[in-house]
Write a structure and sequence with these properties.
The protein is mainly beta and about 550 residues long. It is built from five helices and 30 strands.
Amino acid sequence: MLLRSTFILMIVATSLLVAQQKKGQISGQIIDAASEEPLIGVNVVLVEKPSIGASTDAKGNFFLSNIDVGEYSLRASIIGYEPVVVTNVVVSTGRSTKVKIKLQQTTLQMEGVSVQADYFRKAGALSTISTTSLDAAEIRRSPGSAQDMQRIVQNLPGVSNSTDQRNDLIVRGGAPNENLTVMDYIEIPSTNHYPNQFNSGGPINMVNVDLIEDIQFSTGGFPVQYGDKMSSVMNVTLREGDRRRQFASNTGLNFAGFSTVMEGTLNEGKGSWIISLRQSFLETLDKIIGISTLGLTAIPKYWDAQVKVMYDLSSTQKLLLSGIYGNDKIFMSGTLKETNFQKAGISDSVGVSNIDFKSQQYAYGLSLKSLWGTKGFSVLTLSALGNTYDAVNRSEYTFRQYDAGGRLVQSNIIDTRQAFQNNSIEAILGLKYEMVYQLHPRHELSLGAQYQTVRNFDTSVRFDADTARYDLNNDGIFELGPITFPGGLIENHLDYAMIIFNILNKEISVRARVWRTSLFRQLHTSQPRTVNIIKHNRSRSMRITEISVITVS
């Protein structure tokens, strides 16, 4: 026994010694917050270990190696810019932690300069008053967030949620569909598994936090290019892959799912790639230990994929490919209660609903980013997004028989019918151009144009007829009924094209929008045991021109 205990202690001591000897790396890029031009010669130092530091190269990149595993803060400083301290930089064993820092220019006085670094980063914020910046480390460590970027912002001022089961964002009383999500210049309607139509919320987020570089969440006062949304804007930037390694990977299991992240370099450091694949945690657990052990009647089965490829065409032009895909399905089967003492010796019939839900969604874009020296930059983005919904609700009418002890001894399905079905397909193409140019140290000009068109926008909803009776005073006599709810079919087809122009500087904002839409609806209703069919067809086209001017004080 003593020998065994000694052996275990030796193993623990050896493991601790090996863990203490593990080292990690920190790499990143530092750019100008206004022009996004790489900054050369910026000093980067670990606050906790001032002896470890480096300077950025001609591309604004820096690299710190041989760092003990732990959590650190980075301080970046250079003459002419406000120093920035980046916190929550986690160094892991054998991995290179990626950091991207934006520095804001400052005015120097010859008599003397007093500079104080802000603890929280604000450079490049959508609105300096109402914007909160988050990084991946803050999201991973946030209590109760389950590595969901939307759940962490639910705790911010002015933001609330609908239920604990969903990550809907209700910002200052606005509806969940009034929030805008932008990921790498792509406007995405929803980044969640099992989404509702025309709703930005859901129970599980598709974005893997291991790919997040930073998040800017603004609850108001955001620029005119985000004017279509009334409540909030969430701007998500995905990090680049590792340009120093041919291949690196990280695999893990948590409540968000079983995931793996792979990354590497392209063409000797001229580019990088990163891919994330993730599967449902409960589905993975079900494959290991089985559904009966979990004690669940419905297993959410989903998987998602993300990709980002960055390539430097030249020193001033970069090509960016970014995309996300999600696939969801769940089958919720109604169950008959096996024991009911109130049903002792009684036979009855009951309706049980089974819900079969499937959905897919995708969004990808190709962006060309051009730097204009120290004055500004432009981004041209071609994007495509879409989703499909397939929801079916089937009702099974079942005969039940209970014994004298209230135990279910027999059940037979009498009838099966499809009560509800929703099939929807949505697909949109978009082209967007954004330009930022610094006219003067105190004046900035922003121009933009956006074109969107629908490739497919079809909805087909079928619902079966039903009847109901009501016993108002619970005396066994139905005073009201039967009431007939007619069944029917609703089909919608939407076709629109939209053009938006944006002009923004420090004093005035101008936004012009031109869009055209046509709507076709067909409704068939039929009552049970009758041949009454009602048809209603309507076709409508509309063209609207809108110009708004906003003066900024």
